[in-house]
Specification:
With 165 residues, the protein is α+β, with helices and mostly antiparallel strands. The protein has helices spanning 9-19, 29-40, 45-55, 59-68, 88-93, 95-106, 148-164, and strands spanning 80-85, 119-124, 136-138, 141-143. It folds into two domains: 5-68; 80-164, Glutaredoxin (3-Layer(aba) Sandwich), CATH 3.40.30.10.
Length: 165
């Protein structure tokens, strides 16, 4: 992910490499946005503006697509994504309490990224781990049967591991 590198040639080279796949077909907008987000970690405003220039699609139309689909991000995300399951089983067993504990531990709200950009906290509809409810995932690592205390401990242990790495 590129942080504050709008002036570097590599930043724009990535854009140009992705745009080589663009044939002029406006139906390619979503795949282009996906590739751009994969390259930059999110969709920076200057990239959206340049995409508009190159495709002939108005910025307002591009923003309409970006804001319609939850997969797209307009802000950088953390190195680690914490997904808190709010599926039925997790909800009934206390997902809200788990989310509150994690958000308090990290000093952010759902959908936000920590100042150190180590974590982004997201809510998801279901992680498919109902037998482990309530459950979270940190990247691809699943943690289940959580309480607010064990959820905070998972975050502390993860942060400790990251500091040692």
């Amino acid at each position: 992910m590129c942080n504050n590198c709008a002036q570097t040639s590599q930043y724009w080279e990535q854009f140009e490499a992705i745009m080589t796949d663009f044939s002029g077909d406006r139906s390619q907008l979503i795949p282009l946005l996906q590739k751009l987000q994969d390259a930059y970690g999110y969709l920076p405003a200057d990239i959206i503006s340049r995409l508009s220039e190159r495709t002939g699609i108005f910025v307002s139309q591009i923003m309409g697509v970006i804001t319609f689909y939850s997969q797209f991000r307009l802000e950088p995300v953390g190195e680690n994504i914490i997904r808190i399951c709010f599926g039925t089983a997790c909800h009934v067993i206390g997902a809200e309490n788990i989310a509150d504990a994690i958000c308090r531990e990290l000093g952010v709200a759902l959908g936000e990224t920590t100042e150190d950009r180590l974590f982004t906290v997201e809510s998801v509809a279901c992680l498919g781990c109902c037998s482990l409810a309530p459950v979270i995932m940190i990247n691809e690592e699943t943690h289940g049967r959580l309480t607010p205390d064990t959820a905070r401990e998972v975050i502390r242990e993860f942060r400790s591991r990251e500091a040692k790495a």
